[in-house]
Amino acid sequence: MKHMKKILALAMCGAMAAVAFTGCSNNGTTTSGTSEGGNTNLSGTITMTGSTSMQNLCQALQEVFPEVYPNVTIDAQFTGSGAGIEAVTAGTVDIGNASRALTDEEKAEGIVENVVAIDGIAVVVNPANDVTNLTQDQLKQIYTGEVTNWSEVGGPDMAIVVVGRESGSGTRSAFEELLGVEDACAYAQELDSTGGVATTVSSTEGAIGYLSLDALDDTVKSIQIDGVDATEENITAGTYALQRPFVMATNGEISEQSELVQAFFEFVYSEQGQEVVSQVGLITVDGPSAE
């Protein structure tokens, strides 16, 4: 991963600071990552599953977190947002990752929405396509099948191939909800991963798709929505329409979780953790307010 060396360098610089806030004893002294009696001696495995869009973030945390907690591993699987919420609800994992907001029904089951980052959803086309901008209305018309040729939106005379994610994907749920086209899309292909969408769009001249902002690369072309680019600056400013939360859901409040899971969230919401969020191309968030 292109960001990983930079992230690891950051972790090495920030590890001592992170140790300081997690390893303080009652008398104000601190413990090192290998000394006895400090929280940094926690050991075990944190299990999580869910959103494929959150893969870059989770893999970065898998690398960085052990720099502070060397005896802890993170077992992350990427099975889709719906599967992640089902797993944390059933108690088979510590954390369920979802690239969308939780539903009222999920919250009613006791699942807590812990937003750890904000992501933009980029709309992408094949690099050979000369279309650079779509309005939200045009995007709706394309995805519902009302517009089927690029010439109808100022592009070449070429059939539009509508690509999206599979049912249960957090990216799909967020995209459709933000556009107001839930259960109304006319997909030509429904793919089960962010990478699959990028690969299909990059190899299909008339294709259009959507993917997480941090998954953008030069194999596809991101287009403007209502004249606004999908960038971190525009998402932070609130001018780019397609944005969604990255959620690490827990069964109950963070304070009710194991010491290991609590330490993980403390790190994620720390300055060092949010630097990792930023390094993988996501928007940082503030941690939960103290009671």
Description:
Helix 2 links the parallel strand 1 and strand 2 (72-78). With 291 residues, this protein is α/β, with parallel strands linked by helices. The protein is built from 10 helices and 12 strands. Helix 1 packs across helix 2.
Q: What are the salient characteristics of this protein?
A:
single chain; 291 residues; alpha/beta; D-Maltodextrin-Binding Protein, domain 2; 2 domains; 10-stranded mixed β-sheet; two-stranded parallel ribbon; 10 helices; 12 strands; 35% helix; elongated; disordered N terminus; Phosphate_ABC_transporter; PBP_domain; transport; lipoprotein; Phosphate-binding protein
The total strand number stands at 12
What is the chain-wise order of helices and strands? Answer: HEHEHEHEEEHEHEHEEEHEHH
Instruction: Tell me the distance between the termini.
Output: 38 Å
Unreliable sequence segments: 1-38
Indicate the structural class: alpha/beta
Strand content: 15-25%
What is the CATH architecture term of the largest domain? Answer: 3-Layer(aba) Sandwich
Q: Helix count?
A: 10
The average pLDDT score comes to 87
By CATH, the topology of the largest domain is: D-Maltodextrin-Binding Protein, domain 2
Radius of gyration: 20 Å
Q: Determine the fraction of residues in helical runs and give it as a percent range.
A: 25-40%
What kind of sheet is the major sheet?
10 strands, mixed
Tell me the number of structural domains: 2
What is the top-level CATH class of the largest domain? Alpha Beta
Morphology: elongated
CATH homologous superfamily title of the largest domain: Periplasmic binding protein-like II
Family: Belongs to the PstS family.
Organism: Candidatus Egerieicola faecale
Signal peptide: 1-20
Function: Part of the ABC transporter complex PstSACB involved in phosphate import.
